Amino acid sequence: MLDQVDVWFQDETRIGQQGSTTRMWAKTGTRPRVVRQQQFLYAYIYGAVCPATEDCVGLVMPYANGYGMQKHIEEIAKKIPKDRHAVLIVDGASWHSLDYNLSNLTLIKIPPYSPELNPIEQVWSWIKQTHLSNRCYESYDDILESACAAWNAFTNKKGFAKSICQRDWINMNG
After folding, report:
1. H-assigned helices in 30-115
2. What is the 3-state secondary structure (H, E, C) of the chain?
3. Model pLDDT, residue 85
4. Which of 29, 82, 88, 173 is most buried, judging by how many CB atoms fall within 10 Å of its CB?
5. Domains of the chain from N-terminus onward
6. If you ran DSSP here, which 8-state letter would residue 72 be given?
7. Residue 159 backbone zone (phi > 0: left; psi -120 to 50: alpha; other: beta)
8. Contact at 8 Å (CB) between 22 and 134?
9. 138 pLDDT band (50/70/90 cuts)?
């Protein structure tokens, strides 16, 4: 029975005008300047990864709320093969309700204040450091385009989802 179960990790991250700054290469002795925006336009990437199968499902939504989570759960459920079941690991956000009625998907919440138990945090770190830091966005459409491009860059790297999200403790087959 356990050989028919896949473990997925789900989370969401905010992308927007008050983005993050990160280290950058610069000529020795110089101090590069990075502009940090003061505006407040945001979008959220809802992402889910199954390290065993390297399946990834992402949505970019304007808000982090129950509606966005419902839509994301529905997309994840579509990705699960007919003869399999998925366990979806989520954090304790208020919109991560456990009462979705899907026969092929079960949600499990991790304990509060334990992001280290959700490997998708490494995905967000990579996406932000590699594609979304030290940037300015002119409009909401620019944020959406950048968020989608960053998620697609992650999913298009063959073997990368497994390399940063696989954990020994989720190996269900021994």
Report:
1. 66-79
2. CHHHEEEEEEEEEEEECCCCCCCCCCCCCCCCCCCCCCCCCEEEEEEEEECCCCEEEEEEECCCCHHHHHHHHHHHHHHCCCCCEEEEEECCCCCCCCCCCCCCEEEEECCCCCHHHCCHHHHHHHHHHHHHCCCCCCCHHHHHHHHHHHHHHHHCCCCHHHHHHCCHHHCCCC
3. 94
4. 88
5. 2-17+38-166 (3.30.420.10)
6. H
7. left
8. yes
9. confident
From 88, 92, 11, select the one nearest 45 (Cα to Cα): 11
Confidence of residue 21 (pLDDT cuts 50, 70, 90): low
- How confident is residue 86, by pLDDT bands cut at 50, 70 and 90? very high
The helix/strand/coil state of 117 is helix
| DSSP class of 132 | I
Cα separation, 100 vs 22, whole angstroms:
38
The answer to whether the beta carbons of residues 61 and 43 sit under 8 Å apart is yes
Indicate the SS3 state at residue 153: helix
